[in-house]
Amino acid sequence: MRDRYPLLEEVRAALDAEGLLLRGAFHPAPEDEAPQDAATLLMVGNAGPAMWRAFRARQKREPDPLNAWSGRVLSAIADRFGATLVFPFDGPPYAPFIAWARKAEAVSDSPIGMLIHPEFGLWHAWRGALAFRERLALPAADEAASPCESCATQSCLTTCPVDAFRRGNYDVAACADHLRTEEGADCMSEGCRARRACPAGAGYGYDPMQAHFHMRAFLKNQAP
After folding, report:
1. Is 172 a member of any domain?
2. Average of pLDDT values for 92-106?
3. 3-state percent helix, strand, coil for the chain, nearest multiple of 5
4. How many domains does the chain fold into?
5. Does any domain span residue 91?
6. 0.90 exceeded by the pTM?
7. Where are the beta strands (DSSP E) in the chain?
8. Do 76 and 162 share a domain, yes or no?
9. pLDDT reported for residue 207
């Protein structure tokens, strides 16, 4: 791949140095709502604890420290490679990152709504996208079956203490209310129980400090 896709490998190496991952790429069609003149989109994300370690090493005291860190890191990488940068948290309107992710790599819906990855399970996210005017040569997109297809128990649907996922929709209010109680301390400090119940990608699970950071950020954005 290094000989056939040298730019992709350079981008991959630059991201890896920051604990980030090149999460696939695709050539956007007009209906994909990509930035104007974008002929290639490279998706950037994270999985497991690598990003957390890089972020913690240079974290600053600011209102949204992870988004701010992502902005600094990815802006430098975008400038280096002459790309336009798109973030999932800039909006409204927000870029359709979920739709882009489906085109870029083998992710699929899980029973609890999150996109599940065949290797990373539910322990992943997207931090940005690099848009290039050039139509870059790309390898074929990975194809893999969803881990949910072979999961007999689907314990993610029955593990939540307040059944936030049982009825097919994520009950955000019930989840947030639970996190504010003493009974919700486990979810708050260790991460979502439903997410932890999934056997896929278990080796990429977040440590308690990272899990608590994300849960606290989630709760901060929910009205009491």
Report:
1. yes
2. 96
3. 40, 15, 45
4. 2
5. yes
6. yes
7. 21-26, 40-47, 84-86, 108-109, 115-116, 124-132
8. no
9. 93
1 within some domain: no
What letters, b where the CB count within 10 A reaches 16 and e where it falls short, cover 162-176?
bebbeeeeebeeebb
Domain boundary among 132, 166, 199: 132
SS3 5: coil
Please say if the pLDDT value at position 2 is more than 60: no
Could you count the other beta carbons within 10 Å of the beta carbon of residue 113?
Answer: 13
- Other CB atoms within a 10 A radius of the CB of residue 57 amount to 10
Phi-psi category of 211—alpha, beta or left, where left has phi over 0 and alpha has psi -120 to 50?
A: alpha
CA distance 20 to 49: 10
For residue range 74-94, what is the model confidence (pLDDT) as tens digits?
A: 999 999 999 999 999 998 999
Among 97, 132, 167, identify where a domain stops. 132
Cα separation, 165 vs 114, whole angstroms: 11
pLDDT at 100: 98
Which residues form the domain of 165? 147-220
Question: Which pLDDT score is estimated for 3?
Answer: 60
